[in-house]
Amino acid sequence: MTGRTQRWREIPSERSPALGKFVTAMRDLKDCTPLTQERVADASGLAASTYSSYLNGARLPKEKDIRAIYAVISEDVRLRSETLTSSLDELIALRGRASLCMSCPQRGGGTPLPGPGSPSAEAPASERGRPAPRFVRRLARKRVHIHGSRRRTAAMPPRTEVPVPPAEGDRHLTAAASPALSTELALLHRHQTAGRVRDTYMLVWDRARKITPEALPEVLAAYRASGLEEAAEALLRTVVVERDVKAVLNIVAALHDGHQYADAQTILAAARTDR
């Protein structure tokens, strides 16, 4: 790697370890190219200040922004016959872990901080009247804006049919969801339409801790068939946390048996990041 290595600002100690790993990986990727931040941002369709906030850990990028940045830098590296420090799948997996740690309890029992000067994501009883953290409020406003027209409507019922023929996709529901799963889907929809991002991720986190390898393909398909794509991706990247290699291989085998090969690849990428 012969990019232009620069001295980076120290990541605040208040940030979660998962966010620190993601920011470090993004910085290492930038160091692979001699292009300036401004040129990378411009080629990626981003404002220079937005890209800078990603590299400083002030904001968490969307997955499409990561893909755009990676495409620009990887092309420059390819032309110079150099190598990259991370794959795209590894960066996306790190981003998923960082997103969850900003909304869910950490393994050590602590509560992650959205950023310096921001209130705790889960304040004690004496502080529950205070506003939510800035990161959560920003996501909540975005979701209310998107789904505002149906904020008070009833939750969507789970789909019971395959949206496309099985030969055209491997991530679709092929049977009716169980009553318990239907209740979970309805609850996820209520959280999402109300902008309760933290409650959504808490429910996904709890499902990831308890799910068996055999049940994972059905739950993933039900999430996607109900329009909960983000919840499905979060479940994939969280289910490997605190599981040993044998358990991860059992999950991958179950996904292969269900012909969900793309999901199996995501599980393997998340497992490599978690180790």
TrEMBL record:
GO molecular function per UniProt: DNA binding
HTH cro/C1-type domain mapped to chain residues: 35-80
InterPro entries given in the database record: Cro/C1-type_HTH, Lambda_DNA-bd_dom_sf
Region described as Disordered: spans on this chain: 105-134, 146-167
Record protein name field: XRE family transcriptional regulator
Organism: Streptomyces griseoluteus
Highest classification ranks of the organism: Bacteria, Bacillati, Actinomycetota, Actinomycetes, Kitasatosporales
